[in-house]
Fold each of these.
Amino acid sequence: MPGSVKLHLQSLVKAPVHIAPLAVLRIAFGSIMLVSTIRFILKGWIYAFYIKPQFHFTFYGFDWVKPSAGAGMYLLFALLVVAAVMVTIGLFYRAAIITFFLCFTYVELLDKTTYLNHYYFISVMAFLMIWVPAHRYFSVDVRLKPKIAVTRIPAWAINIFKLQLVLVYFFAGISKLNYDWLIAAMPLKIWLPANSQLPVIGGLLAQTWVAYTFSWFGAIFDLFIGFLLLDSRYRKWAYVLVIIFHLATGLFFKIGMFPYIMIFVTIIFFSEKTHIRIINFLKHFLPKNKQYTSNKDYYLPAFKTQFIYGILALHFIVQFIMPFRFALYQGKLYWTEEGYRFSWRVMLMDKVGAIFFYVKDPETGRRSEIVNSQYLTTFQESQMATQPDMILQFAHFLANQYQKKGFKNPVITADSYVTLNGSGSRLYIDSTVNLAKEQETLLGHKKWILPFNTKSQ
Amino acid sequence: MKKIIYLALTAASTFLLIQSCSKSSDGGSKNTNTGKSFDRKAMLVNMSSNIIIPAFTSYHDATVSLDAAVTTFNTTPTADNLTALQNSFIAAYKQWQSTSMYNFGPALDANLGVNTNTYPANVTQIAANIGSGTYNPLLLTNLAAKGLPALDYLLFGTGADNTAILAQFTTDSKAANRKTYLAALSAELKTNATTVLTAWNGAYKTTFLNATGIDGSSSTSQLVNQLIYDYETIKNYEIGIPAGTQSMGTTFPAKVQAYYSKISLQLTLLHLKAIQNLYTGGSGSGLDDYLASTNAKNSSNIVINDAIQAQFTTTITKLQTLTDPLSANIISNPTAVTACYNELYKLTTMLKTDMTQALGIAISFGDNDGD
């Protein structure tokens, strides 16, 4: 038995497979990133998210990441556009995908206000694409340098993307297996009726049973879709489900490009025959030229292969562990959000808060209430109000501001009220704690977050 | 395939067990949806036809009267005409309290809010404009030297009594410049009010009625956001800042709205009642009906709509214990002012959290995608 498992694993990693799926993925990912980046620019978000705010909520350990001044952010997005085009057509591919990964990740690290699972997903995909020879087939690079063309690559170069996608869906599925989602049909019970203006189905959306159906279907879809896509017998129907599911969520919720990204990248699951057909189809749109057909295998020196194996092994170990780190903390996960990000917890809760900060001068005992909008955009304020690590960051920023104004040890406290999935708003953090004295830690629990269920404590 | 599914199920149930340990059973139990879908379009029809457009119409009419009173006064600056002008001004300021919360669409395009009511008035800037005889309405520095607060100062604050104020427009060396300035300010108010009203009577009403969704650009979302924003100006600017909540307890009585005409509290009460009226939709469909249709309850298990209605009443009653001039009350009766502030604060929380979530517009807050 162990022998056959080992053989199976070996074929998943080393078996020579056709490169076409990788070339299609490159084109799909590059082009959807191009659309996505241009959309971001046209929406005016560069200014709204990265230039207008005077304060940014950085990630733990990444305080040194600051937006570039002046036209810098616009240049960076211009670079992203160029990189996306180059990835799509496969021109100077490695340089392009590395540039794309670095620029995109840099932008995401600037401010956690804009954190979205699908931005994280894009960073992850771009990172994986750095290590594969996606430009060695049907690309400008091959036209410029025909001898780099290959037809067969080791299977790992395609399977890592399938594995990543299975993980994303599966973790998204198991994160839905909880009381709120399955038994209370929350937050869909709030979100769906809000779409009652939609024609035909609008009236149905207010029905409780519809919220339950969507919740359960969503959970089952996420849990199994990755595995169904892996199996050639169910693949076609699974992909139809992928399209229906993502388009439906795109219709009901304001989730931007995410549905289209998923519809595009899941094409990778199809067989090499399908991908060759896709490429032949794409060739119709290109000027006719003599077809260069190589019959070479992709060759990588052993030490490079070992190096890439190491990187990928590390990557997937992290991917497996990250969604479980919430178990290190006490308290209700949705309430504390400790260990919440980077875990494929998608659309799981509706959380709204209001927060009032106070600065007290310990010498005189007098205090001021802060008008948050003096320092934060509406978007930053609404995100901060429900996320303790952001509350702490802003408190430290305020302490700093008042120290500059000449107050020696300003005491920062906050009255904060949060409602989670229709629970009704309640006190969120201990309003007596001096937040200026509290520190952020890597995996430490924030004791000043009040328990969600005060009665049971 | 079967093996994979079994494996997935096992993994999923393990995960479920882990998650259950840290999970409370409270989440979501409060919202017992009635299953009826709320007709947002009907609410928007009621609000636009019976509340918003009438408010802009009355405000427009008030600015027309005000501008006419300025013309009369400037031609014949008598004590009687000054009193008549002051009354016109008070009528316009009162009507503004029922108009300020619609600062979206055409009003936002015209920057109606900041152009009309940025206070406290910048007396130095006003004096400089009169002294030089020039006034550029487009300059940001003139935001606090225009609109209702500047008129408040010119018509009530330039002298100890009406005799002294009249002298500023008759015998004073800058009287002519002052009259010109007065005319420019009232004309600007009229022009802005006309622009916005015309837009609402024209194409914008259709735009407003058709944006029936809940996304950031939908009418419901804009109404609710502006209602909350405008409500917070009562808490922060009409009461909070003058009472010293943002200045380590040092009070700034002169920063109240309508400091010189001494009608601050009257205005605040009108403002709060106008917001309450928008919330209830007057006698028609409003946010109260919308909330009632969700039957959402707060953490004390009280229907959110009931809690908000009650808090409106409590806050208004509390404010009625104060008297005008509010600036004097802030100094003589700080305890009562603080008590009002606390009630205003409670209502802020209800509107910002419970109401927003129950209406289902929370997800569209901010101008970004969700996930």
Note: Chain B has 16 helices and no strands.
Amino acid sequence: MTRRLSRRSVLRGAGVALGLPWLEMMTPAKASANTAGTQAHPIRLAALYMPNGVNVDHWFPEGKGRDFQLTPSLAPLADVKDQLLVFSNLWNANSKGGDGHYVKEAAILTCQTIKKTPGADLANGVSLDQLAAQKIAGQTPLPSLELGVTPVAIGVDAVVGYTRVYGSHIAWSSPTTPLAREINPRAVFERLFRASTGQGANAAKMDTLLLDRVLGDARRLRNDLGASDRIRLDEYLSLMRSMEERVQRAQNGTQRPWKARVAMDAKQTPPENPKDHAEHVRLMMDMMATAFQTDTTRVCTFMFGNAVSNVSFRFLEGVSAGHHDVSHHQKDPDKLRQYQIINQWHVNEYAYLLKRLKNMQEGESTVLDNSMVLFSSALCDGNKHDPHKLPLLLGGRGGGRIDSGQHLVYSEDSPLANLYVSMLDAFGAPVERFADSTGPLPGVLKS
Amino acid sequence: MVSSLLASDARGEEYTFARSQAFLKQYCESCHNDKAAVGGFRLSRFATEASLKAQGQKWISAAHRVQNREMPPKGSPAPNIDEIEAFTAYAEQAVHGAVCAAGPQPGPAVTRRLNRDEYAATLRDLLDIHLDIAKGLPTDGAGGEGFDNAAETLFLSPLHSEKYMDMAKFATDFAAKEYKPRQKILIAKPGEGIAPEEAARTILREFLPKAFRRPVTDADVNSYVALFQLAQKQGETFDGAVFFAIRAALVSPKFLFRAEPPNPGPGPRPVDQFALASRISYFLWGSMPDELLFDIAAAGKLHDPAVIRELVPRMLRNDRSLGFAQRFIEQWLRTRELAGDKAPDAKLYPLYAEDEELRGDIRFQPILFFRELLVQNLSLLNIIDSKYTIGTSNFAKVFQDRLPVRGNQPKQPQWVVLPDGIHRGGLLGMPAVLAVSSYPYRTSPVLRGAWILDSILGTPPPNPPANVPPLEEHKEGAAPKSMKERLSQHRGNPVCASCHSRIDPLGFALENFDVLGRWRNEDNGVPIDAASELADGTRLNGPEELRKYLLERKDLVVRNLTRKLLGFALGRGLTLTDSCAVDQIVAKLKQNDYKAQVLIEEILLSEPFRMQAVSAQAAPVKPVVSKSEKEKSKP
């Protein structure tokens, strides 16, 4: 009941823009410093999520500040070490308790405690990426890009009492709206291509006519429905209205001129069915890089897998089991060894993305200089299901605001949400508070 | 009233309300008393027998938390598994009895969008096009009873709105070029004495009710004719402009959503005929009603039990019911996961990885089996044990099972009689089930046992308690141990044993089946030992004894299947009063030899399925006004 009221009132209160009330609750710290819109080069924000935690023995570096040595799991980042922040001792307090996975993983970018439910009253918070996207809404053809490689996990986890919808979504545009992901690389490419090239004037005109009719139907249907049934219709109406705005914006070149910063090449169309997990992930890294390079969107999330993912990593030399199974190593040295190999593989993909962005020149700088790319897992040691001392990395200089090239060690149990406060500041979407934050995270931004 | 439904504990002693109170007092009161009320919960809520009805949902959630060992919290004195089970069984039965005294009540009818599969099937049937449209849409998560048609989790993203636009264009562009769809849709054309908008009106008047699954008004038709005219003004041809109007209809919420006219009250009422036609067709076909259903609805006959009983076999025989069987079975048994994390490892099982045909056979075996039970109206107990299965020549080749596959198309899946001594009767002899309840690289009696408890018996095992000791100590150079030896630790530790003695033996009984479901007599050089003893002393050895054991618990099995299917039919989680309808359906099944069609009929005739609760009133909602807006509005 509470959910319904809040969802409904939010829609009423906010009109078109879902999530606006939360934005307003988080009063801007400074008078709108929307650097993303005014700077020569836009700031991009991506968050990558790896399921199942890490082998802690080979993750956290020796040494603090600028003087630190990459551990075996972080070794693939050697070439971009000066563009990297490694964090120690951040945790996500609100994801404590509940169950071993869903509570942690759905909250990695929201820092809220999700509601335990098989589905009827889904509730989380608004995620980091969506706060950023809502701030710059309308400045790029796509507001944000949600990517993954596996379909939404099926069913409800009857044992713990959570719908697996939670474990399959890290991006939430409102506390009740997880964002669907695209998992087909070709579909992503085509979507980026169309968004960045736009459509002809006639096609746009036709779309406008069509949307007009659809919105008319939606309004009429809405009037015929009971109060509780209007909620879904309202969601639909608001989506279709933003679609209409998007079509119109693309038509009206003077209002907010957007131009692809680099043209996309149709010859680069990726295969529809990648041959294996490794190729699939790699193609998605390429899609993110392309999206950022062209400026088709500035906000992106990517899930290497769903919560409790048990993707087989037997394609890696020396690994004999699935991801989740290995993460429950029970201190078995052989499983720990395999766990580390799997962690390192993920970091290697992350490093690939950072290096691609680094090779994309943007004036005097590179796309990586103007990006913030978070690598995260919602658990520390997968065997313990604990959200203390989370494995977190931040790549890129955020347009020069990020003081990269450090291993930042905090006092135990410092809030992860503080990192998000700093990232949103660098993005140009500053907030006073984010969930349980207590302020910006010291050392992240250049003073 | 309540006394007649009393549960009993492991020793067969009657469990009374007073005993539940003693349990709560002993384990919960120190935190949940009137003074402390940790988490906002106080025991005084549960102090009277009347609370079983008035606070039914609270009782059930408290029982679940105890069952899952979330409560009492770590560090507090905890009840043992027998006490937990006796308490939770009592709570469930007592609440159930109290709530069902008034009979089943219809639940809420929630407006929901078509899910991915429904959307694709509806476009297919509406336009008569055969394309893999679902592939282009994001997959849906599941809610309620675990199905992806649950209204509560069918949320919308910007990605959906984009896809709806793209798909509508894609589908109409395709239909506009094909002979059959054109024949079906373009039933009029402009010509002598027929103005273009007149022809368009004829076409749309026929098309729109199908697309919106209910009669449309003249105003509805006019607005789409107007759109046709606008498109013509933009230079579209007659055909182009018609298909453009159709394209718009496919993005209309009247097409994309299943919305039912609200019930203003004062009491529950039979659901509107056209809404009921959609409920039935999306349940049994996963698609729009056909003309016959539409006509029956128009004649106002869909609430007639005799009509329903005639419809059921007809709808089940239709090819479209295959989609229903597939979506239900693949989610109920979770065999859909064979296409993901649960796929048998390609290196260890190249046979599976490399033979697409075999993969299809394996995947479709339980689906086709279930559908045959429905079409032939056989006993549902066939899911536990059966003289029949679905066979193909591939199965015979791979599983060394001499299935009597017939005819000149032995590769076609067919209904076959199982030879004696082949161990394959029922779902538990099927490779898809045996694979999905294993690790991709080895079998696991724990996974299989838990799978049976959850999917077949509907009694999922609780979470392991905190700080479980590691199961398998790694010892270099140790001789290979049998799975049973390795799992014997579960028996050695009383904390583990309390649950694993209920889980593992069910799985051990299937150990002769490898990951792909092939029969084996040894694993890793160690002979298979499929015998073990359940917590209650029952000895189980091999699949036959397991089937016998499950048949003795057929009430649980049938009840679980009924719950699942009712949840699927309603497309939402079941409420407490829905479980009263489950009781009634199960009773009917018992009287009718568990005939499969009886299950479908009784669901269609049940209160929750054919009735509609009073809609929530459009109570004035206080809009959230942000601080800045409030200040702005000050004079």
Note: Confidence is low (pLDDT under 50) at residues 1-6, 473-477, 618-635 of chain B.
Amino acid sequence: MTDLTSMTIAEARNGLAKKSFTSLELTDAHLAAIEAARSLNAFVLETPDRARAMARAIDAKIAKGEGGPLAGIPLGIKDLFATKDVRTTACSKILGDFVPPYESTVTSQLWRDGAVMLGKLNNDEFAMGSSNETSCFGPVVNPWRREGSNTTLVPGGSSGGSASAVAALLCMGATATDTGGSIRQPAAFTATVGVKPTYGRCSRWGIVAFASSLDQAGPIARTVRDSAILMRSMAGHDPKDTTSVNRAVPDYEAAIGKSVKGMKIGIPREYRLDGMPAEIEKLWSEGGAWLKAAGAELVEVSLPHTKYALPAYYIVAPAEASSNLARYDGVRYGLRVPGRSIGEMYENTRAEGFGAEVRRRVMIGTYVLSAGYYDAYYLRAQKVRTLIKKDFEDCFAKGVDAILTPATPSAAFGVGEKGADPVEMYLNDIFTVTVNMAGLPGIAVPAGKDAQGLPLGLQLIGRPFDEETLFSLGEVVEQAAGRFTPPRWW
Amino acid sequence: MSVDATTVRRIAHLARIAVTEAEVPHLQGELNAMLAFVEQLSEVNVDGIEPMTSVRPMEMKKRADVVSDGEIADDVVRNAPERQDHFFLVPKVVE
């Protein structure tokens, strides 16, 4: 059993093709691992019957030589993706027992390619959070612990369930979404690989909306190669999403192992924060040295509006959220709390259905869009966003192929350690949020450990639709840093 | 800029979120902390800068004006907390 769950997707694909094991055996091994790891709270819904049925069906196809690129690979699905006839809640009480009569485009493409669904993964409520503590199903536990300590650590968020499950060998890969860092930050906290694709690369159709101009789906996996394999199935044009881009999907896996010789890697000076921990600084320069040793050239670059990305994000994202979440009114689906009038019913439903963080963001968003404040806040933030995007464009125009930064300002922290001051939690996304504001692709790759034995990640930021360069560079980092697996204690 | 208790109640009403009197001071503190955090944007010179309204430059997609879906009323009302036949039920809105 241990062998079957510790393989990479690439290894399992070979094993299935050679008939060393069946998808049903692989699926059963993962279902057993999930059952034994319930204390991590990574899954909010296990779907073993569906998983076995899907595995049997794909085994029959494999036997006939009709597999598909992900044939028989068991995956976990973030609970933000609508899955037909399977409860989808965005980990919010307000969606209650919502059972979608449709399937999200991204997941439908995974099933088209032969993947098997193990269940739905925990996340911060409506993906609003950086620690997975805002989920109505409770926090997810990081399989990593500080050396010599049994303090419960967060896996990051919002895709905390995805990151935790992949790191703990409960699924071979997982879907995730990233609005301000929700794929890359949890990947960094769990020593997994997380890819936030270019805006428009993956369809948003059927994914519970948070901030539509920032949201993008992507994979979390254990290796750069595995994340490239998943990306190929998740990406692609979808007429049902007006911002989905009609552009051929490359064979991302072919970029793995490609030479990075001569590539120009930008090191942005504004990411060198005051009071940045020495180990983050060290990791960052080590990453640069690895890329240099592989033949890349390091150049210092400037992204002057970096410090304004997070405050601008905390206007744009809540504004879009307040608009998107207006649909939860207790009428068409989900929770309804009665009131004396329809207005009171709306207010009671939303007060009880939304958690504290979501209420706070919806209110801020409502405020910055309200008459008299729109220009001062929302319009100004949209203009600052133009400047942030231009910073990157100027940098790429000078021939920079990709930008190297730390993924997070620290390693994973303890459950309940942050959050009294919301802004303190928001600072987690300081290195990742610029990428969403500019609509660029980014990848987080495990690169080392801090003094307490916790994983740390590096981020690579690419040109629009040049995920391939990120996979090539990410592979160099992975080869140099090695892979990190948490010791099993759960 | 900062918000007072009256503004907090007004925003909550605009957002259709019931707020008790006891919650107002706490919410006011949190909202003001966020507003203080975003205040630094006022130091950016945005003269002559266009607001970013589209992430990737692309022509707006249009589709043919034809019925592409439908006849799924059962599916549409399936998740409604209260329904009757193919109708959503709401508290009385017209006297």
Note: Chain B touches chain A through 50 residues (CB under 8 Å).
Amino acid sequence: MSTPQETVERALGFSRTDGCIVIADESSGANLRWAGNTLTTNGVTRSRRLTVIAIAGESTGMVSRAGVTPDQVEDLVRAAERSAEESGPAEDAAPLIDAARAGSGGAWDDPPAETSVGVFEGFAPALGEAFAAAQDDERLLYGFALHEMNSTFLGTSAGLRLRFDEPTGKVELNAKSTDMARSAWAGTGTADFRDVDVAGMAAGLSTRLKWGERRIDLPAGRYETLLPPGSVSDLMTYMYWSAGARDANDGRTVFSRPGGGTRVGDTLSDLPVRLYSDPAAPGLECTPFVVAHASSREASVFDNGLALNPVDWISDGKLAALLQTRQSAELTGLSLTPGVDNLLMEVPGATASLDDMVANTRRGLLLTCLWYIREVDPQSLLLTGLTRDGVYLVEDGEVVGEVNNFRFNESPVGLLSRVAEAGRTERALSREWSEYFTRTAMPPLRVADFNMSTVSKAN
Amino acid sequence: MRQIDQEFTALPLRALADAALSRARDLGAEHVDFRLERVRRQTLRLSDARLETAADADDLGFAVRVVKDGTWGFAAGIDLTLDAAVRVAEQAVEVAKVAAAINRERIELAPEPVHGERVWVSSYEVDPFSVPIADKVELLADWSRRLLADDRVAHSDASLLQVKENKFYADAAGTVTTQQRVRLAPVVTAVGVHESGFDTMRSLAPPAGRGYEYLTGTAWDWDAELARIPDYLAEKLAAPSVEAGVYDLVIDPSNLWLTIHESIGHATELDRALGYEAAYAGTSFATPDKLGSLQYGSKVMNIVGDRTAEHGLSTIGYDDEGVETQSWDIVRDGRFVGYQTDRRIAHLTGRERSNGCAFADSPSSMPLQRMANVSLQPAPDGPSTEELISGVDRGIYILGDKSWSIDMQRYNFQFTGQRFYKIENGRLAGQLRDAAYQAVTTDFWNSMEAVGGPQTYVLGGAFNCGKGQPGQVAPVSHGAPSALFRGVNILNAVKEAGQ
């Protein structure tokens, strides 16, 4: 079996068309899943995928296969070339990225990084102890732990050779009372599981389950609401994904300016909100160059290797940038700001913790997390979804009991204009989107008039 | 019946299986199964009739699943060598040993007859992977150009997802299955932009377990649908905003399939009802104590779970645990009577046999209990859609799915659609904008006054039903006739956004 570096060189060597991009992805993963204080499923996986993008004039053909052996590489290149010949011109055609515009990654020659079930060496015993403690305390623990390591090797016929090792991990822990009537959730992203405090997470959930011993029914309506960082991540991540420059310029998103163009420059929040991405953000490091296996409205295969730099999407409360390819940047006349695989929000000077914000609340709702979020109306980016695993009523600075769940209808864009207070930014895991996006840091937010559209009987 | 692709049957399927099964048995596994899969996917996307994405992605690999000392062990590999098969079997046993320390529930599987060697191929005529990309791109470009020729259409999107799935399964009991199925999801969308906003109109053709013939005239009239989309879009853009309130609804199968999926399909998964998905996908209000007694819906409601329906996306001969697929009642005359199960959950709940709902979405995924084609049955001599509409004084007729969301116990849901028509005195009176319907599952299904006849029945569905951690996606179809519901809450999405 060849190394990924050898495979990339081999594929480029077989290329007969005007250009060629080769991406070798080496991935390994380990996971544990548990329910009712017992393990339910587990697994270790490995995958190896080779993607060849052939460029013939303005046409591209992309073929991606798993488990390619050295004697199958030429077949893959030829399949991509046939696809390029058949496909017709690509609308995002552009010269390949050269060294001057390329990002930098790790040492090309190093072997791919790997993970294994050993990553849970410290975590699994701690989880076992948490199961035992939960059993003694008549609580049930559910959850999931996942660790993946992806090593990406990108080579192009323009001479680029870039690689990056990206670890991705997360833990979700859910505690329920034995009658399943009360439930609380906590989650965190992690690069290596050494920073996961299972006992601390379980203790926090116990506190929340105790809050739930007093039940208060509230009707649907608009409430002052404290969103924890994870829920802010739920909403901001979807907004980020909806910030494509091409669609905005085409007049088909919330960031389209009526009559033409985009809303870049518009004030979205009266607070000096900063929403940004940075491939080098401490603890949230991610691939520092474009890796596009296929073109889409927000990504172009021709941009493969392009350096990713820190970018402010919202700066001082104003929309500052949209997700761009070289093609859309030219079309819109805006800066070239491709998407980055992390997202952070900060409000300068905001230092309060979520607990501090609870203490400063006269009457409002404190959420745990949001779930099943879907777009209702793209014009306003209205989203619907549910509150889940604990909605608490805060009165005079204290949690006084657990409230029923609600279906909400809210727009993250509209919501930004109603943010009354932000707290200190911390690493956050989106409950809804963590399968795709784990690297976020968000502050807790106090939002006026959050729209709880109807009551949900679910608990 | 079509033949299994030779390039799949030429792989060393039996040799790898024998090596893995034998090694796991030698290591003391009580149960062992081996699954080798090749999944071919091709995605084509056009924007304004120009190619945006042409991507082929193939997966090939195998997995070994064991039960060792009452604990699951699962491992997957990609090198198709005997050594690798043995190594992955050892790894699966090792994972089971490590996991045993935190397993408190002994894994046992419901028995399944040994089926010996079986071959199954889905029902299709033309393998879409045999059609040149250029032909497919030209077809989508032609569809796009037809939309763009109308000056009320500002932009068009067209896409075609194609999947061919080969599964080889062998277990230590002696069942050996080799299967192949094909599915397509063609979609076109027209976008209209005017000074005060924008909107879209999407085709209603459902994804289907069919071949390329589906795009060229079999089972769907594309010419007719494409011709109407600009008119539908223009009418929607000019339509008045709905007044929120309570309305009678006539729901077309192009919309109702998704409501069935969320409020019945997921709610009657037994693993979910028992709490095994509690931390992620959620649980279900339809708990086992309600089986046989819960009035899920009105007397006209009959729901069947089925993995055998021709052209169904969940249809297959044998599931990923070697269980022969079946058809069974989930709701009969409105009463909740059945669940979907896999072998583990069937045994756990004292059932004699699984009804064949295990599915893994890739060679490296562990099988989960996944959804059958769960379908609402039409009334044998039931009314047409027009006859259902004629029975409504003040209501709304809904076509096409769009937005969906439901809570974690499957009570509270909210759906939008492609088109909402006002009904006045039994007749359609133009489109409405900004509508969404919101209800509680059992209230909604008990408000169903009538279902249409077989002439209104359509098999809808999706490729991307998500479940489990690590997340997996499964294709599934849901058949439905048109149906009449009384007194359902309609929201105005613009007002919900506070505008």
Note: Chain A touches chain B through 94 residues (CB under 8 Å).
